Amino acid sequence: MDSTKKRSDCPISCSLDIWGDKWSLLIIRDLMFKKECTYGDFLKSAEKIATNILASRLQTLEENGLIQKLAHPESKAKVLYRLTEKGIDLLPILIEIHLWADKYSTIPEEIKPIIKETKKDKEGFINLMTKELKSSIR
Questions:
Q1: 130, 29 in Cβ contact below 8 A?
Q2: Per-residue pLDDT, 75
Q3: What was the pLDDT predicted at 1?
Q4: At what angle are helices 11-19 and 51-63 packed, to 10 degrees?
Q5: What is the reported pTM?
């Protein structure tokens, strides 16, 4: 269900309406590299997202089919979030953002191995990571 109101029919505009705010790609990033996260995991990220913003972004991402909620295996009070296939398909965009940032910014040490692997064989890295992510949703 696509509940996001479109500003125009431009593909870039429509995409940004779903994940182009300040927080959504960071949520997707966390799910991309950790596979599954709880609400509390997102709150612990270095960017310090406010709880009301987090709840809103998670709802938007879920309504637009980029993430899904799962029952937590250890706690009925918790929910696990995981990327859907639609969310996983954002991996090439995140990789390109990493490469752009590597060119123009200082990169944290923990990100450098990902960038190094990507530069060796970008297509191969994206294919391998996509396969890993998709195997966790089947």
A1: no
A2: 86
A3: 47
A4: 130
A5: 0.88
